[in-house]
Amino acid sequence: MADDSALVLFSGGQDSTVCLAWALQRYRRVETIGFDYGQRHAIELQQRHVVLAAFRTLDLAHDKLGPDTVLDLPALSAISDSSLTRDTEIAFAASGLPTTFVPGRNLLFLTYAAALAYRRGHSTLIGGMCETDFSGYPDCRHATIQSLATSLSLGLDRQVLIETPLMFVDKAGTWAMADSLGGSALVDLIIEHTHTCYLGDRSIRHDWGYGCGTCPACELRAKGWRQWTSTKPA
Ligand code: ZN
């Protein structure tokens, strides 16, 4: 397989958008994959197309950004009991995990992505998994991801690399990374177009982007923005 190409797991949120920029800086050919699994708010899937279209206008993309693939995974919503897929209140479950947690979701996403990558000749997958912030999703942890890379390599009988550039980066660091990768053009793209809010709210424009401002995802994004803007050089 070619080592100069990569497949990015791209949701249209802030983290995967920064990962896409990171990939475009390192690989000659970059493709994207997304998943339609009955997200409570289709707005996330709408915005990922808007973000991709905006990306193609950035210098960063040049002619490197290849086709996008969206896979339907309706089975995931059928087996999950989560406020991402059902209209239940977002709260923390007794386990300490947010009720937005879809068990094993990233393992499934990465496995489907590895199958597509195999067919399309990529040996590297790139995802925005991160174990730094509040949620502690066990399928976002470094050990989980690298263990899966080993399993996929064995199961496909080809080396599968999984790169997670945000694994140990907090939200302030993610804004800083966006700035260093794509400057204000990329930071503005993230503010205007990426979607993070769990409630699907795009009615209010904050200085860090659109969202309800009070759900855990908005709070994290806003807090990271405040930290980054208060420390960056003018
Ligand atoms: Zn929100």
Please give the number of β-strands: 7
Specify the CATH class.
Alpha Beta
The overall pLDDT average reads 88
- CATH topology label: Rossmann fold
Largest sheet, in brief, is:
5 strands, parallel
Q: pLDDT under 50 segments (min length 5)?
A: none
The CATH architecture would be 3-Layer(aba) Sandwich
How many helices? The count is 7
Order of helix and strand elements from N to C terminus: EHEHEHHEHEHEEH
CATH superfamily: HUPs
Largest sheet strand order:
3-2-1-4-5
Strand content: 5-15%
3D architecture notes:
With 234 residues, the chain is an alpha/beta fold. The chain has a single domain, classed as 3-Layer(aba) Sandwich (Rossmann fold), CATH 3.40.50.620. The chain has helices spanning 14-26, 43-55, 74-79, 105-120, 142-156, 171-193, 216-231, and strands spanning 5-9, 29-36, 65-72, 124-126, 161-163, 205-206, 209-210. It has a five-stranded parallel sheet with strand order 3-2-1-4-5, sandwiched between helices. A two-stranded antiparallel ribbon has the order 6-7. The site of zinc ion (ZN) has 9 residues, from helix 7. Residues 197-199, 201, 211-212, 215, 217-218 line the site of zinc ion.
Give me some keywords for this one.
7 helices, 13% strand, binds zinc ion, 5-stranded parallel β-sheet, 234 residues, two-stranded antiparallel ribbon, alpha/beta, single chain, 7 strands, globular
